[in-house]
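Student: I would love a firmer grasp of how sequence relates to backbone shape in proteins. Thank you; the sequence and its tokens follow:
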Amino acid sequence: MKQSRSYSIFVVIVFFLFMLLHQTDKLMIGSMQTPISEAFGLNKLQWGLINSGALIVATVLYPIWGYLYDRYARAKLLALASFIWGATTWLSAVVKTYPQFLGTRASTGIDDSSYPGLYSLVADYFSPRVRGKVYGILQVAQPLGYLIGMILALMVAPLIGGWRSVFYLTGSLGIIIAVVIFFGVKEMPRGKAEPEFEGMQEMSQFRFSWKEVGEIFKKRTMWFVFLQGFAGVFPWNVITFFFFGYLMEERGYDNTSVLLTMGPIILILAAGYFIGGMIGDWLFKKTLKGRILVSSAGVILGAIFLFFALMTPIEARTTFFILMSLTALFMPFSSPNVIATVFDVTPPEVRSTAQAVEYFIENSGAALAPTLAGAIALSTGSMQTAILWVCITTWILCFFLYLGALFFIDKEAKALRAQMRERAEREQLLHTAG
């Protein structure tokens, strides 16, 4: 048992490093807006198209990745995704023209849709009672990757030959992580960590079923999860790709000021993932509505504090920093809880597909977010207006969608537990007869 727990921790560490370095590679382009735009002579709309391209590719491939993960070994597919990440990033460093760069950056979206398999594999290592915390730990890698990307872009890139050299570095790390996952991470039987199968030494493999895929769309909790996902990632993409430009161009920050301001804020954001997951797990033990309640509180508080932060006068930098820190704390509360909620109502053999469908719906809207924000900024002459309009509107919408999910989560989570108990009883009968 100790060996199994130790190996589970090893797997989390490997996946954390995968996510940390992948998010560094994916998100550091936001910090490189100025030098890349200068290199290719881009306006804000063209810059938005670069970021939308990768999102569109990832969106199209989510259902395919989800299906593959539920049919085949997830660990090997994750290794493949890591290799693709490294290779496509290298290509982005090589190209010399804007159309070429637009194409290579779009190709980086191929591996961006790889996370559903990672989360479903982790679900087979950890029980539902602690998944929120585990997902929160893993998702800490996203803001930390953003922070590392910011340091690479603002401090390291000028020292090692510019943004192309940084792409060579992160691309190489992607290939190294691919090797580690391929040889170091073992596949786990689907459903192994469900409480109904606790202590069972042997169990049948749960096979992908189109019938169970169809059941995903009959669950009303998932309707609201899908809808909030469509709206909920708009703010993340707008902030990721435009906030640095906003700080520099409209609030007068230089590179050092950006780093000193955003560094602590991103660390607070990282803590918010774990805190949100931990509170969600704690409340989930008291009520099946717990994760949804934490998610709804997070989005509405994030919207409130972002509004007051961006309305703060330019000279009031301390007030701006405090309000953005509070925004960062609550912004990620919903993320680990939404993933755990999807797995609270869907059976193990279609969890990658369910998560992929959610991400497909999310990115169907979010792929347009950078372009939309760029268009608003171009027409109004204000990135602040674009950020406020997109973020506040969509977060308020998410709040009401979470309220809708509260009406159905109890019934559908209990139905999954009943389904797992029925399967466990069949397994015990089969082993007894054998």
Notes: Residues 79 and 181 are 5 Å apart (CA to CA). The chain has one domain: 2-189+208-433.
